[in-house]
Design goal:
The protein is of the alpha/beta class and 277 residues long. It is built from 11 helices and 7 strands. Helix 4 runs parallel beside helix 7. The longest helix is centred in the N-terminal third of the chain and has 23 residues. The radius of gyration is 19 Å and the shape is globular. It binds S-adenosylmethionine.
Length: 277
């Protein structure tokens, strides 16, 4: 091996340890947009570290990008998810992978001052932005907790509703994540999963695929300065489970009456299940 190649290899190995998002950018350069996006998925054993580093890095621009890339539809999607949780005034809910806390805020509004909503996430920079929103909107019954979705620091049967918005796709073991959500839900409580999926209509699916592999990474890269993160997004959606597979995982986790609701031509899907008694 030539010495410059050797130096490149070592440098890349060191970078892989400290900044997986940066490494993905290096690896992805020089390929067309679809190849870049397809190659943007980390190896399963690297997924948790990759995802955490990615959200730590894009946190300051995350909310702005959500609004731009979804043409502000993301608030409406989360409102549907919050409705499906059927949280009553005084209820107790957990929103995992809460990020900057938008769904948790939506739930806290419903739970009211006598309720309690916890938003958990493993990215401290994302939670700090959630804390700022909470202070600006003076929401009393909302707490943020730094926690891994695969090892929730809560007892069994603790929450009336457990939700996740655009987070379960990023968890290293999706089925284990759903099991953990079900574990901490009270019998008869609701588990709600809001996530991107592939549209059912083939024409819309083709348009959506074009947008997500061509426009989205460019816009996301431009605004966040982290193009690799926005190459990862469409790839992770493409590689994600089907609606039916998610439903089966929920049923295996002990959830019954699982419903599937398509939003925006099925590019976004809400699954809702009820924990068996
Ligand atoms: C796309 S963001 C969604 C944030 C928020 N729920 C929303 O609707 O905007 C995904 C979030 O999941 C978090 N996340 C991914 N895997 C996680 C895990 N294993 N444990 C905790 N948080 C995780 C990331 O840190 C990130 O904040």
């Amino acid at each position: 091996m030539q010495s410059c190649e050797f130096v490149k290899l070592i440098t890349n190995r060191i970078r892989r340890r400290i900044d997986p998002v940066f490494v993905m950018t290096i690896q992805a350069s020089g390929k067309n947009s679809t190849e870049r996006a397809v190659n943007a998925l980390p190896a399963p054993e690297e997924k948790a570290g990759y995802v955490q580093a990615m959200f730590d890095a894009i946190a300051p621009r995350y909310d702005l990008l959500n609004s731009v890339l979804s043409v502000r539809m993301h608030h409406g999607w989360r409102r549907v998810a919050a409705d499906k949780a059927q949280l009553k005034s005084g209820g107790v809910a957990l929103d995992i992978c809460t990020g900057t806390g938008d769904l948790a805020l939506e739930l806290a509004r419903r739970a009211g001052a006598k309720g309690l909503v916890i938003g958990s996430d493993f990215s401290a920079p994302m939670l700090q932005l959630g804390e700022k929103k909470k202070a600006q909107r003076s929401v009393p019954a909302l707490e943020f907790v730094l926690a891994d979705a695969l090892k929730l620091p809560f007892p069994e049967n603790a929450f009336d509703a457990v939700t996740v918005a655009f987070g379960i796709r990023n968890v290293a073991d999706v089925e284990a994540g759903i099991r953990e959500m079900a574990r901490v839900t009270t019998p008869d409580g609701k588990v709600v999963i809001l996530e991107f999926n592939s549209p059912r209509n083939p024409v819309f699916a083709a348009l959506y695929q074009w947008y997500s592999f061509n426009v989205l990474p460019r816009l996301g890269g431009l605004i966040s300065g982290r193009r690799a993160a926005y190459n990862y997004l469409p790839s992770s959606v493409k590689a994600f489970y089907s609606r039916e597979e998610i439903k089966e995982m929920m049923e295996r986790a002990g959830l019954k009456n699982v419903t599937i609701t398509d939003l925006t031509f099925g590019s976004v899907v809400v699954h809702r299940g009820v924990k068996s008694k």
